[in-house]
């Protein structure tokens, strides 16, 4: 993409200020889009780098489509070289985090009506190698219930499913392949400084000791087995990871450690899926799996506090832009450089009148022509953008500060609101 070329140092088109400006404009457009949606009494439930998800609060497909089309037209009418379109219609969604959700997607039947319903998955553990088939199957089942069934019955059915799953695992009803975990070697196994705590590295070293190949880039399969001495530390757990062939071998005394799988492969992804559903908690889920619930009791230290931030529109400009560099205006006559704190503030200080800007030096008070102001503002903006070492958020605040302090409509609105 052009953005990638602008932001990549090895590209012939490398220009980090332009890349930063691209993200700034994208964020600005998304912010305006969210405001437009709320102005139409629509609820924006999620926003990504190039999209927003809107809850129409409708169950009728045609009605939801019309709301989407009306909203799309409102947004597209605001831009000449930017076009938004509807990407998908979801009937139910389990939104866990940024870029992490599961949803039932309704396909169009080609006649404007609802067609086939499919499941769309983004960012879930089930797509990663280091989770066993056992873990993925449990996640799939726990994810399916909230999407397909009424909220009132979901938790009860998940609890029943986990109770049944725990019993089946301990009774050995699952095939050995369900317990295999895969992980890729990032380097040769002997090059890992912390090899003792990494299961796949331990298995790779055991393979090499037997004359087998195990090198950087190889995907190593392994299974956690019961430790012979009962140790449960992370180091001991890694040491008790074994290649599936060693577990299958006739006469092998290795036994799968079901408790490890229940506590590290089944419980964590299920808990993440259920944390936003009322009626359960980690300790209760652990209890259903037959684990010691006390080990998983939540404490005030375990539960991250939600971070509440004041809406930017509700705090003063002085506080909002405390870290931004102030703008300054230079008088061409006497050379005095005066701070420009915004239209309203400079009106009070006497620098601004109905005829324009005047020098802040009381001994000069010469008129500052508009072209001079425009050039100074342009140079200021170029200077800010050229500081490519700014983080995106800091650059955004700086540009927003300059735009806000020079916004006549905003100043007039403040005056009208205070009158």
TrEMBL record:
Compartments it resides in: Nucleus
InterPro entries (UniProt xref): DNA-dir_DNA_pol_B_CS, DNA-dir_DNA_pol_B_multi_dom, DNA/RNA_pol_sf, DNA_pol_B_thumb, DNA_pol_palm_dom_sf, Pol_alpha_znc_sf, Znf_DNA-dir_DNA_pol_B_alpha
GO cellular component terms attached to this protein's record: alpha DNA polymerase:primase complex
UniProt domain Zinc finger DNA-directed DNA polymerase family B alpha: residue ranges: 313-389
Protein keywords: DNA replication, DNA-binding, DNA-directed DNA polymerase, Metal-binding, Nucleotidyltransferase, Nucleus, Transferase, Zinc, Zinc-finger
EC number(s) per entry: 2.7.7.7
Predominant subcellular localization, coarse grouping: nucleus
Sequence ranges assigned to domain DNA-directed DNA polymerase family B multifunctional in this UniProt record: 1-277
Parts of the chain that traverse the membrane: none
MF-aspect GO terms: chromatin binding; DNA replication origin binding; DNA-directed DNA polymerase activity; nucleotide binding; single-stranded DNA binding; zinc ion binding
One record GO biological process: leading strand elongation
PANTHER family associated with the record: DNA POLYMERASE ALPHA CATALYTIC SUBUNIT (PTHR45861:SF1)
Listed NCBIfam families: pol2
Family to which the UniProt record says this protein belongs: Belongs to the DNA polymerase type-B family.
Name this protein carries in UniProt: DNA-directed DNA polymerase
